[in-house]
Amino acid sequence: MAEPPRPIGGGGAGLGRSRGGFTTKLHLSADGRCRPLSVIVTHGQRADCTQFMPVLEKIRVPKAGPGRPRKKPDSVAADKAYSNRPCREDLRRRGIRHTIPEKTDSQAARLRKGFTRRAATRLRRGAVQETQHHRTGRQQTEAAQSRRHPL
User: Fold this and answer.
1) pLDDT digit string (tens) for 116-125?
2) What backbone phi and psi angles, to 5 degrees, belong to 147?
3) pLDDT at 8 over 60
């Protein structure tokens, strides 16, 4: 006797309890014209953020001509359910721009620690100015040495 076909997305029937009833979640990625690129079906109680990277990894956009299908999107837009450090770090590591709003409790925690975007910009600006200062000092030293030893 043959086994019944397995549902999309792996094990189980994709049915799970959430808010008192049986539910199913469709984790879907789509392009700018709302055409689906990849989908994973999970139980209703499954957290959204755990399926973020598997959905992105399943993206395959075939090219018009020969060649491998495209697997990396230019940018990603997601809701607050995907606003956590692992999702953001993985997108940065893969070089994918993203627009994901930050949760208010995450903002509050960051502000409690005293780190704001303005402070990060100031730190970056200070590093650039310091590099330019060192570069200027090095250039002055090289110019002084070249004056002492004419060619």
Assistant:
1) 666 555 555 5
2) -70, -35
3) no
